[in-house]
Amino acid sequence: MKVSIEDIKKLREKMGAGVSDCRQALEECGGDMKKSEEWLRQKGMEKAAKKADREVKAGAVFSYVHHTGRLGSMVALACETDFVAKTDDFQKLGRELALQAASAGPATAEELLEQEYVRDPSKKVSELIKEVIGKLGENIQIIDFKVVRV
């Protein structure tokens, strides 16, 4: 099936995937945008699984402080290179994880990974991380986190 440049561009803007991946998704899903989005998510999950054993040596610490000043969190998020640590997608993920930790108050990192994502309860935090791994092409791990309440 021949897909239009406009459809590829729309899918790329929405999902952040590469042009060739978007084209392949649209071709394999008969031009259906919803099915193509799911196809790309699945491909990202498969990429994430392949990268899970790779060593993480770079990263950043992210924080969230509630507007009342009585609740805050810090999350140490690691990736393979400092290049990826500086990307907008990695930075956004770090901020989202700090918000998640503050809002849900998990006791362990494993518990945090199994929680429903506060902005989209249809997916778990672990799935959110895997989506970013698939997009950026590097292993990403939560190293540590802390939630503080007054």
Automatic annotation (TrEMBL):
Annotated region described as Involved in Mg(2+) ion dislocation from EF-Tu, given as residue ranges: 81-84
Matches recorded under InterPro entries: EF-Ts_dimer_sf, Transl_elong_EFTs/EF1B, Transl_elong_EFTs/EF1B_dimer, UBA-like_sf
Keyword Cytoplasm in record: yes
Gene Ontology, cellular component aspect: cytoplasm
Localization of this protein: Cytoplasm
Domain (Translation elongation factor EFTs/EF1B dimerisation) ranges: 72-148
GO molecular function: translation elongation factor activity
Record Pfam families: EF_TS
Domain of life the protein comes from: Bacteria
Keywords: Cytoplasm, Elongation factor, Protein biosynthesis
Main function: Associates with the EF-Tu.GDP complex and induces the exchange of GDP to GTP. It remains bound to the aminoacyl-tRNA.EF-Tu.GTP complex up to the GTP hydrolysis stage on the ribosome.
PANTHER family the record matches: ELONGATION FACTOR TS, ELONGATION FACTOR TS, MITOCHONDRIAL
Family membership noted in the UniProt record: Belongs to the EF-Ts family.
Protein name: Elongation factor Ts
Organism listed in the record: Candidatus Amesbacteria bacterium RIFCSPHIGHO2_01_FULL_48_32b
Lineage: Bacteria, Candidatus Amesiibacteriota
Gene that this sequence comes from: tsf
